[in-house]
């Protein structure tokens, strides 16, 4: 199984901050890496697919990068509605796996 | 627009079974896999398995082999997830999600979630 190591697990942030979350996989997954945003009690929402492609309707302050085993999600100029938990997800091989999540909190 | 609508919350006793439905609309039902993901209280996301609605082929996580069954009803565009021999640690929010095999196999639409509570 492909292990996903996401960091940090939580982050205290201020509005307007630039935020970077990293995801490392236990083996190369090319660019089969996706990012989701989840707000409390709600279903996850797709932000980024194929490592760096912005899902339709997602604000351009979100961006993704990386390939192989190391990936990043960046939020430039954090907005109040971005306070949520973020998950990376590998769709390279079954069993499909998720990172442990990164919870953003306001300082 | 693409929509996945799940059935309502369930409360079950240990040892019982639960069957959750996921009704799809707004797209060609047989063209996309449906996946199931669960989330225990305060925990992360856990993939359980998937079904190909075109041919009924399924893939399950080894952890759930023998306890989970995914089925589909094509005329109603509905997928079902049945989990048997429930224990307290099966209490979770269960989501269905559409897998986009035309791109990166990402989950591009999700159901609203179904809360399953296992308690004596």
Describe this structure in words.
The complex is a heterodimer of chains A (107) and B (120). Chain A is mainly beta and 107 residues long. Helices cover 0% and strands 50% of the residues of chain A. Chain B is globular and about 40 Å long. Helix content of chain B is 0%, strand content 52%. In chain B, the strands form two sheets. In chain B, strands 2, 4, 5, 6, 9, 10 and 11 form a seven-stranded mixed sheet that branches. The termini of chain B are far apart. Chain B is mostly beta strands and 120 residues long. In chain B, strand 7 and strand 8 form a beta hairpin. The model of chain B has no long low-confidence stretch (mean pLDDT 97). The interface between A and B is medium-sized, with 25 and 23 residues.
Helix content of chain A: under 10%
Total strands of chain B: the figure is 11
Percent helix among the residues of chain B?
under 10%
Strand content of chain A: over 45%
Question: What's this model, at a glance?
Answer:
Chain A has 107 residues and is mostly beta strands. Chain A contains no helices and eleven strands.
Q: Could you give the topology of this structure?
A:
The complex is a heterodimer of chains A (107) and B (120).
Chain A: E1 4-7, E2 10-13, E3 19-25, E4 33-38, E5 45-49, E6 53-54, E7 62-67, E8 70-75, E9 85-90, E10 97-98, E11 102-106
Parallel strand pairs in A: 2-11
Antiparallel strand pairs in A: 1-3, 3-8, 4-5, 4-9, 5-6, 7-8, 9-10, 9-11
Chain B: E1 3-6, E2 10-12, E3 18-25, E4 33-39, E5 46-51, E6 58-60, E7 68-73, E8 78-83, E9 92-100, E10 106-110, E11 114-118
Parallel strand pairs in B: 2-11
Antiparallel strand pairs in B: 1-3, 3-8, 4-5, 4-9, 5-6, 7-8, 9-10, 9-11
